[in-house]
Design brief:
Chain lengths: 238, 543, 198
Amino acid sequence: MAVVTLTIDGVAIAAEANASILQAARSAGIAIPTLCHLEGVSDVGGCRLCVVEVAGINKLLPACVTQVAEGMAVQTNTPTLQSYRRTLVELLFAEGNHVCSVCVANNHCELQDMATTVGMDHSHFAYQFPKRDVDVSHEKFGLDRNRCIYCTRCIRVCDEIEGARVWDIAFRGERVKLIAGLDQSWGDVEACTSCGKCVDACPTGALFKKGSTVAEMTRDRDRLQFLQSAREEHQWTR
Amino acid sequence: MDGHELLDLAEQCAQAKKPIRVHCCTSTGCQAARSLEVKKALEKRVQDCQLADRVEVVGVGCMGFCGQGPMVELDSTDPQVTTTHYEKVTPEQAPSIIDTIQGGQTDALQGNSQHPFFAKQLLIVRNHSGKVDPERIEESIALGAYQALHHALFELTPEAVVQEISKSGLRGRGGAGYPTGLKWATVAKMPPGQKYVICNGDEGDPGAFMDRSVLESDPHRILEGMAIAGYAVGADQGFIYVRAEYPLAIHRLQKAIQQAKQKGFLGSQIFGSGFDFKVDIRVGAGAFVCGEETALIASVEGKRGTPRPRPPYPAISGLWQAPTLINNVETFANIAPIIRKGADWFAGIGTETSKGTKIFSLTGKVCNTGLIEVPMGISLRTIVEEMGGGVSEGQVKAVQTGGPSGGCIPSSYLDTPVDYESLAALGSMMGSGGMVVMDDKTSMVEVARFYMEFCRSESCGRCVPCRTGTVQLHDLLTKLVEGRGTAFDLAQMESLCQVVRHTSLCGLGMSAPNPIVSTLRYFPEEYQALLQPDRWRIPATVP
Amino acid sequence: MDTLTNPAPGAVVETEGADRPKKLRFATVWLGGCSGCHMSFLDLDEWLFELAKYAEVVFSPVGSDAKIFPDQVDICLAEGAVANEENLEFIQKVRSRSKLLISFGDCAVNGNVTAMRNPSATVEEILDRCYLELADLSPQYPREPGIVPPLIKQALPVHQVVPVDVFLPGCPPSAAQIQSALESLFTGEAQTAKLKFG
């Protein structure tokens, strides 16, 4: 495996040539915030929180899908990036109905944590208060669309790890909607194997185990990574 | 078919034309103005007067002066009859136009072909538009269609074709102006194997209809350009992606593909060479974002049409991960003329960095609405004031180019030459060719809001800044327009523009703030005038 | 962007004489919220004595008998969203009489539970649901002009109505967070408690 050297925030780092900037940074202990990224599935570069500055390139690049290169000089946490990230999180909070206090994911929510990380104490933007519904037709799980941030992690785990492809995004722009099957009730989608990987993947309280109440919904993220490494590296125990 | 046979065929087709051709525009715009009825009336009169031996009525593509449609042209090689064109022809007036052939009078509005609208044009892409029946391949063959393809296949190596395109200085006509030759060379240099050529006909900017017109008027031009591209880069399959809102263009393309296949210009072993090239049509499903190349490719693959981050660029990994050459309709339309007349001829037209011509759809408050093809480097003033005839009332205030990704250029900059760099320096862009003229009654804040509304409803929703940022920007603009906004809202809007521009995933989001940024740059007083006093944020009382 | 947030630390502490700090005029107000934030405020327990060293409570549903919001308040904590016409009028009065306004708790910061009515229904539908459909006895609207204030169209975060200087999210913010926020204002030192919604 070829290795390249680069600097991230001034720190010299050696990384595998096909690694992403995100992987290289994390392996060197440099945290870059992410929401749509999930270990074990492909990246989409949708949340834009991981955008970084690369010397010599006049646009910001998403660290999750940008490959490292020899001699690359990356800045991950400039004041500009900090302010952009905070704005992005503010936009997310203003977009959905994120009522932490009554959310199953309270205290176990990546969006909530991200607000703390980027120092967001309120959203400058007008709250949209969109009208969205809740689907509890599935026997074991529920979907609260009020909390969905369209990170598409559920879509990718279902497609890439479980192979069922129950989830998809329908419509566009502000009208996007996470749908099960062909915009059916989740419980009616026969392709669903009830494996619960989507629930484990969800960063917010959008997907949850039925019966969990406020702040009870925890996730088993390691399970997804374990399945991925089991498949790729044949490590069958964890 | 070999080269001689093609030339013979062209000769035969040219011979088959009658000395007096009555061209009647049957493009979408003129059809909407009843041009099909006009055509019927013309045909009936030719029959009734028993002129069919020397007069033929031909349904042709766009003649350009769309605002004055339906257009009818008497194209005559008969010295007794002068070539004339008529504007705003009604079915009632049509018969009298035929009567002029026999010395009669007509009350149809006679056009002036010396008018700057026509005289200042330079036709390369559109030189057959309005001259040929797009539904009959013979008409195009008569004017030399597919001769450039034959020349490329038998006289040039693929490398030589790429070099010719590079040398011509042609740049992408979709808007960004990427050097076409460089793109071709990238795809050509990828290892041999499955490669694709895609023609991007998902034209969607408000007020833009250049590509539709080219597809409707001269489809063989596109097919020939794509086939040459396929030969140059080593692809045997092409796709034309056309939006579903262009049914006539799709119909004519289908017919053209079928006829070209029958003649052996497309398909297997073209002209008996070893080169195969098939073209299929993919119809868009109504999403503006599918004009973005990665979204378009996803859509051709049958997936949801959303962009993905680049790199990898389609030239490296595109359709089904194969190297893919994707160019705009107008870019492909320039290929055959370049091959036929040579790169040097093409490079002799235009400016240092922008070669050839560009088609604009001139719309808005301008007097003469329609399509114009002008050499690069022409000034905006010439286009707007001379060709367009200015605005009917008041003064020209601004010209919007580049659609929702572009910007507004104030009238004080009308002497700017039209080329990629000059327009970009003004905060606008060449874009695909929409040019909307605004008069002094137009509110620039409303204009910005219109484009933002467009972006808001066309954002695919994949990335956060575009999906949610355009909503907030549109809401802030609405607040300003409705007289509820304060300086605080304005400052917030400006700052959000930067975030959306710098963090969005694809060109749609990155350029969505442009209409705000450019109107703020040139017309800040219009924003200021809408601001309400802020009851709370007077500097003196800020804690 | 927002020049109003995060004023210079310690900006509100004014001194009187050589060494004795003048007490700040401190208020808390309760808009459309459950009063949980005020309960959390009372959880400050013995630190309330510390607070008293810095501040004089001039208006508060839990710390003062004053019925009229006074002039020249230095710091005011506002709990709750702006949900009805009384809230709307009151918060404007509070803002104009306070130097530093703090959005106190999630309802004030983002609407929270109070704003959960916003997405789903109009004011009429909400009232129908609450007072007619779900009523056990004598279904009727609570209509007492001048006593029961009418709801506004949407329950709004305070900063969407008037400018807010400091945001203290949490449902409720813990006593430690309140203490940390107030201490940083009194002493000018950086906050120690982490922000957290919910």
